[in-house]
Amino acid sequence: MSAARSAEAARRPTLTQVAALAGVSLKTASRALNSEPNVAEETGRRVRDAADQLGYRLNGIARELRRGATSALVGLISGDLTNPFYSAVASGIERELRQHGLQLVTANNDEDAELEHELIDAFLERRVRALLVVPSADRHAYLAIEGSRGVPFVFLDRPPDGVAADVVVIDNAGGARAAAEHLLTRGHRRIAMVADLARMVPQRGRIEGFQQAMRAAGNSEWEPYLRTDVHDVRRAEQTVRELLELDPAPTAVFTTNNRLTTGALRALKEHPDPPALIGFDDFDLADVIGTTVVAHDAVVMGREAARLAVERIGGHAGPARSIVISTSVIARGSGERPPR
User: Which of 36, 187, 261, 337 could be disulfide-bonded to 255 (CB atoms 3.0-4.6 Å)?
Assistant: First the structure.
């Protein structure tokens, strides 16, 4: 705990302080604040006044859980919520949960498998009604071994490995294949692919879909331009600059997520004759600046995941289900530039 948090905790009034100020026992103070019977009206008033004076508030969630009630909270563990993709997913989840009287709480795993494990344990200890996970870990067999404590799981974007659970994913291979075919039909052959972490299932799907289109077209000229494990905007910008310095340079670039597309756009902004560009994932202002993208509805992904969770909360006990979110190429100009 940080020094600031420690100081805050030290200043937080306690029930013991309320009892002392009201001149009653700790048990009487607790009974009065919980509106239990057999507490004299005058005593109850003194206890409430003391609580107000000190600024003491009951922990309503903890009290209800002690009484055997269930939480109204649903947990989401995802990547960085500053990424528009994850924030859109969270928005879809929250909208669906709200209709069922449930509330969303979120945490970031920072693509760290150990942290993800810790966060799952923390949410389960707090008795969330369901847990939605965008996994960073490669395997989740520990959930089957340790048990989920009766809490339903739904995985998003990346399927779990080692445990059966509902999952909502994007048609990664199909979207990347469509992007590759879009460029091939416009005469491109030297097509660069800039991909994120190749160990992640969505990225592997996008790489494989792209490769399938190239093999089907009998094109091998793209192979020197494949770059993987490019994980952030800065590295994507640097990678695209390096690609453009090759001789011959690629005539088109395909980036496999919105962060990498942003980096590519920075690299291309002052280029006198930029290559064609298609990015996987739509993003704000892509339509304004004319960036062709492989689009999918992240809000729908979130809503579908929340719907599956709500059904499990309601008692659905069938086998694990899988939902695939469709993709489409939206042509806005950057992906339609002819090869030079």
Answer: 261
